[in-house]
Amino acid sequence: MDGILETKRLYLRELVPEDRDELAKVLCDSESMRFYPAPFNIDKVENWISWNMGNYKELNHGLWVQCDQREPDLRCSTIDELSLISGRTGADLHLP
Fold first, then answer.
1. Tens digit of pLDDT for each residue in 26-76?
2. Residue 84: exposure state from Cβ atoms within 10 A (0-12, 13-18, ≥19)
3. Coil, strand, or helix at residue 67?
4. What backbone torsions phi and psi does residue 18 show, to the nearest 5 degrees?
5. SS3 call for 22
6. d(Cα 28, Cα 72) in Å, to the nearest integer?
7. Is the CB of residue 82 less than 8 Å from the CB of residue 75?
8. d(CA 65, CA 25)
9. Which of 64, 67, 71, 89 could be a cystine partner for 11, CB 3.0 to 4.6 Å?
């Protein structure tokens, strides 16, 4: 798994399908998603990951996973997403 950025404490990497369950803890949580129209379900989480994987190929960036370097296999016990901001406006951006 290739990393995007690495510091002594953090490691950024692309989302992968295996992140589904950890990402679902955030995206399916009503408090975490209070500023979205509704929390996701598992199908939407899978679509979110697929959408980002497509963005990596098409745009050369997408949302990245932030991992703590202390995690032995760089799997994240808590998923955080980070991203560059695309030059597209919200009207042009089609979310899954």
1. 899 999 899 889 999 999 999 999 999 998 898 888 888 887 777 665 455
2. exposed
3. strand
4. -65, -10
5. helix
6. 26
7. no
8. 14
9. 67
Residue 44 structure tokens: 């939407």
Specify the 3-state DSSP secondary structure of 14: strand
What's the one-letter identity of residue 31? E
Integer Cα distance of 46 and 21 in angstroms: 9
User: Per-residue pLDDT for 1 more than 50?
Assistant: no
* 75: CB partners within 8 A, 6+ apart: 18, 22, 67
**Cα angle vertex 25, ends 8, 70, to 5°?**
20
Q: Where are the beta strands (DSSP E) in 3-96?
A: 3-6, 10-14, 64-68, 80-82
Which residue, chain included where needed, has tokens 């990596």? 56
Tell me how far apart the alpha carbons of residues 93 and 78 are, in angstroms, rounded to a whole number. Answer: 27
pLDDT tens for 69-89 read 776 654 555 555 555 555 554
